[in-house]
Specification:
By secondary structure, the protein is α/β, with parallel strands linked by helices. Helices cover 25% and strands 29% of the residues. A hairpin with a 2-residue loop joins strand 14 (309-317) and strand 15.
Amino acid sequence: MSLRVLAAMSGGVDSAVAAARAAEAGHDVTGVHLALSANPQSYRTGARGCCTLEDSRDARRAADVIGIPFYVWDMAERFHHDVVEDFVNEYAAGRTPNPCLRCNEKIKFEAVLDRALALGFDAVVTGHHARLVDGVLRRSPDEGKDQSYVLGVLTRQQLGHAMFPLGDSTKAQVREEAARRGLMVADKPDSHDICFIADGDTRGFLADRLGATPGPIVDESGEVVGAHEGAYGFTVGQRKGLRIDRPAADGRPRYVLSIEPVSNTVTVGPRTSLQVDTIVATRPVWNGPVGEPRGPLACTVQLRAHGEVYDCHAQVSGDELHIELGTPATGVAPGQAAVLYLGDTVIGSATITKAA
């Protein structure tokens, strides 16, 4: 069945091949590039970009080669509010956000999808490495590039209007196909890091917006072992850049164990103290084939993008999701997503609030 679809084209190889495949499959495809900054020069460029002027030009050239109409949509204000400000506010609250996950949720599959449906499109096409089978999200066969985790926050309704044409392909296969199709982005490096932090200095970016807020760094006994200029500059599990005055008594490295924004205190300790067995998460989204579980569910959970997968039991309690891990996890940070799987199938997700 031929559909009228909107292809989100970032300027990279994945989205270009996804758009080409959708067109080749007989769909009526329109390409759109999202302008996410009022000042694109301030965003990352080259190998580290995804929304720069350079990327916009690459996307337009790819659309010309494919032979589809192409437009640029200004999403800068929405992106700043839903992604950039959310990023700053989450760090200020002592949490560790994932801006790429938030961009998928709030921009590509909320703002863009809403506009696309209003304009009469049937679906949004993206170059994500994940599979959709009967509206159910599943992992990509390319484990190193699988992006089902950052899509795990999407609702069933949003997934019902999504298309991921690269689902069964590896990254190497996508690049080979791009070259065969004459797409100039075939060898373009993947984007990395956070697109709206031009120099990659997250701590400096936050300091510019939140200002210096000096506070103590303490060990597990409460003894002050150092000082910081802002608790927002740290994340749970961090080892480097702690600026501790003296080494631990046993000489072993120390890690960030917790961040308390009210008292502006960062607590550090040994790696063993990072281990957690229980996770509590809020705002669960049940987007898989089983719906909300009525009792304890044996499944697996992924706690960060490209992170390790843990066997677990998950159970809903009111508005919270309680997850008991089969083996301890380390560096679990509030603000990150816990995405649940049955095999390679996503069944739901929630936002981590605490772990112990």
